[in-house]
Amino acid sequence: QVQLVESGGGLVQAGGSLRLSCEVSGGTFSRYAMGWFRQAPGKERDFVATIFIGGFTYYADSVKGRFTISRDNAKDTVFLQMNSLKPEDTAVYYCAAGLSDYGTNARLYEKWGQGTQVTVSS
Hints:
Structural class: mainly beta
Radius of gyration: 13 Å
Shape: globular
Number of strands: 11
Distance between the termini: 40 Å
Order of helices and strands: EEEEEEEEEEE
Helix content: under 10%
Number of helices: 0
């Protein structure tokens, strides 16, 4: 049973940084494309960033230049480094694993973590 566990969320002031981690267990991590999504209260779950099986990365326009997704296949972990945080980045952040390079489409990812709250104060 593949499980994803996020960590690293918290409360930070605008302009600050956080690093989210998502550890994958129960599967072969290197075979998964990984994505980060976020959901603010009353809104749909939005795409943030993805890293393909081969390492290609892609970002939502709203986070490009501020967030960086990376993966460590030796540690079965994907990271999301978030810099220059803004109040509008406040959301629950979810990581997702896909058996193919699904990109921005959340519906295609097979496995999801439980989410971690990120709150950015102004």
